[in-house]
Amino acid sequence: MDKYIGLDMDCKKTVGYTIVPGQSETSATFGPDVESIRRYLRQEQKGGYRVHAAFEISGQAGFLYDELLDDVDSLHVVNPTKMTWIYRTAKKNDRIDARKMAVLLSIDELPTVYMPSKEIRQWRQTILHRQKIVQKVGQAKNRIRAALKSEGHRQPEHGGGWWKRANRVWMQQLCEEHVGADSLWRLQVRNLLDELALLEKQRDRVTGYLDAYLTNESKAKLLTSIPGVGPRTAEAVLAYTDDIHRFSNYKKYCAYFGVTPKLDESGSFRRLGHISKQGPAVVRWLLCESGWKVVRYCPGLRAFYERVMAGQQSRKKIAIIALTRKLLCIMRAMLMTGELFNEKLVQEVLKAA
């Protein structure tokens, strides 16, 4: 016999709801810690039942999944947003939420979330961590330039880029301590320069770690063989793809990364709108950045980009998104076949399309 259990967890308690076909439904409330949940699941296994459990995605979902996986016959992580649309009710509490999961699990209609291994999850977190540091570096640089421009320093002393070594030394010298209300901006810039140096040190440390990790990924050579695709884009695509065989076709693969258009269709009316922007935003951002490089270094994809743009500068963003989607299709094919990028083949395929 099978038991279907929905677990609604919060920081203070966990509510478990059990459904056994042909029997009365039961519920229980217990502690939020792993040991309490584990005791409840083991209790439900008594009598030779096969236990199938589900809980909603959260910040600690990966940890809970790893800890509870051996205590059930199957464990599912749920997308609560999609579950709300499938099973709508005017009432809401912890018991009802747990029952929703149990009911949908029992009829095999539960909208589950793919749960990668612990190593892949940590890889993803490191990629996100680096992106946030990069964003903070950009913010610090913008604030420094804004503070200097507000005091009349519109251009760096030594010309060229603001952040070359000579100009950094000039900014440090400019911010030597001065007493007086009219020199308080120097303290602000000096603090920002110290913050920038710290952030850049952190960024370089994380980048070095990711570079070392990527050397152990055999498939990284496939993606970096595409002209314009670097290690940061390759690692993000690989980390979030994980197992390429879980995507049965290129449409599902592109939809996972949120680069497919929304569809509004009713009767004879059919309209394709903006891209869905679902899935990992960091991958979309890196792919778009790589897209501009690909346009420069890959003749076949550059021809595709120019064809979509049709000579209209206003269509540049549309064209780069189309290129990004095409790039993902090529990456999926390379990961499926294990072949390096073939410029001649790409040109032939795009011409025939």
Question: Your description of this structure?
Answer:
The chain folds into three domains: 2-106, Nucleotidyltransferase, domain 5 (2-Layer Sandwich); 118-214; 220-352, no CATH class. It contains 14 helices and seven strands. The protein is globular and about 80 Å long. The strands form two sheets. A five-stranded mixed beta sheet has the order 3-2-1-4-5. It has a two-stranded antiparallel ribbon with strand order 6-7. The protein is α/β, with parallel strands linked by helices and 353 residues long. Helix 9 (231-241) packs across helix 11 (281-297), helix 10 (250-256) crosses helix 13 (316-337) and helix 11 packs across helix 12. A hairpin with a 4-residue loop joins strand 1 (2-9) and strand 2 (14-19).
Secondary structure elements and pairings:
Elements: E1 2-9, E2 14-19, E3 26-30, H1 34-45, E4 50-56, H2 61-68, E5 74-78, H3 80-86, H4 94-106, H5 118-149, H6 165-174, H7 184-214, H8 220-224, H9 231-241, H10 250-256, E6 261-266, E7 269-275, H11 281-297, H12 299-309, H13 316-337, H14 343-352
Parallel strand pairs: 1-4, 4-5
Antiparallel strand pairs: 1-2, 2-3, 6-7
